[in-house]
Amino acid sequence: MNLIDGKAISHRINAATRETVAGLKQNGVVPGLAVVLVGDNPASMAYVRNKDRTSQEFGFHSEKIELPKDTPQDELLRIVHQLNRDPSIHGILVQSPLPPQIDERSIVLALDPAKDVDGFHPVNVGKLAMGDPTALVPCTPLGCQRLLLESGIETEGAHVVVLGRSMLVGRPLAFLLMQKGKGGDATVTIAHSKTRNLPSVTRSADILIAAIGRPHFVRGEQVREGAVVIDVGINRVDDHTTSKGYKLVGDVAFDEVAPKARAITPVPGGVGPMTIAMLMANTVKACRQSVESRQ
Ligand SMILES: NC(=O)c1ccc[n+]([C@@H]2O[C@H](COP(=O)([O-])OP(=O)(O)OC[C@H]3O[C@@H](n4cnc5c(N)ncnc54)[C@H](OP(=O)(O)O)[C@@H]3O)[C@@H](O)[C@H]2O)c1
Q1: Residue partners of 146: CB distance under 8 A and separation at least 6
Q2: Which residues, in sequence order, are bridge partners of residue 221?
Q3: Angstrom distance (rounded) from CA 104 to CA 94
Q4: Cβ(106)–Cβ(48) under 8 Å?
Q5: Which of 145, 189, 192, 236 gets mutated to test ligand 1 (max ligand atoms within 8 A of its CB)?
Q6: Which of 52, 116, 118, 206 is flagged as catalytic?
Q7: Would the CB of 147 count as within 6 Å of ligand 1?
Q8: Model confidence over 132-154: pLDDT tens digits?
Q9: What is the pTM of this model?
Q10: Which of 55, 144, 222, 279, CA to CA, is 20 to 30 A from 33?
């Protein structure tokens, strides 16, 4: 079994992104990322802090906008429009979940698709579906594809089973892996909560990607000997032996599956570090595309 080290791979990708940033700066261009947080959800606050800190470490122009949880939708829309017009900002990320008075869809639709570094705007979803290379693609699926590429795992002709059909992970991942070319050309099956006879579907996978949000859902007997397993899940389970009283586990029962797998990602340290690396890479991509569109 080969452990796919997302931390080490993300460090390599980050080094390449930093080099691109240095090149842009030599030409007087500084990538700019704005992260907007509404409310005080502790997990969201931690994510936003991490994204803001990382973008500063990358030498980006970084803006963190924190709004009270009773912020009206109109006010958030006004801020999004302002960021859309701001030439120093190339990427805008509005952290979800948003409080109930705000319609998340309206906020996504209000984003300039060229600055939508989360890749949620329908223009980017459409571009991804069409295989348009200018698409801004959601960071976690992009990170999964890069993990496979960087680990030398061939997707061409492989049967990939993606467990989960969310707009955040499962669907965009399926589009990426079925695209023509390197990192794609896979035969993709998407499975979800209504899939019949799930174990036989997962056992048919050369590459199994679990993104369902259920701790240790994928058991040893559901995985074919020699399969590659990517675990996207991040689930908190009680563990009173830790100082926090919980630990993070994936959607895959690692101890059962790892001995059968050709390669597998751990949780934490697999897909997680790739997500933030891809956010930085997407911001640089948005910045470069903005410069190119003005030339
Ligand atoms: N590593 C990272 O950076 C990162 C980033 C994003 C998400 N995540 C993690 O990835 C996991 C999935 O996130 P998400 O946002 O995609 O979740 P989500 O929106 O809740 O979607 C879960 C998907 O899993 C399917 N599902 C649920 N229970 C199932 C079952 N028993 N059998 C088969 N399919 C089942 C659901 O099917 P239906 O559509 O039929 O309901 C749905 O399509 C979570 O643990 C999340 O924390 C990690």
Answers
A1: 9, 13, 183, 274, 277, 278
A2: none
A3: 9
A4: no
A5: 192
A6: 118
A7: no
A8: 999 999 999 999 999 999 999 99
A9: 0.97
A10: 144
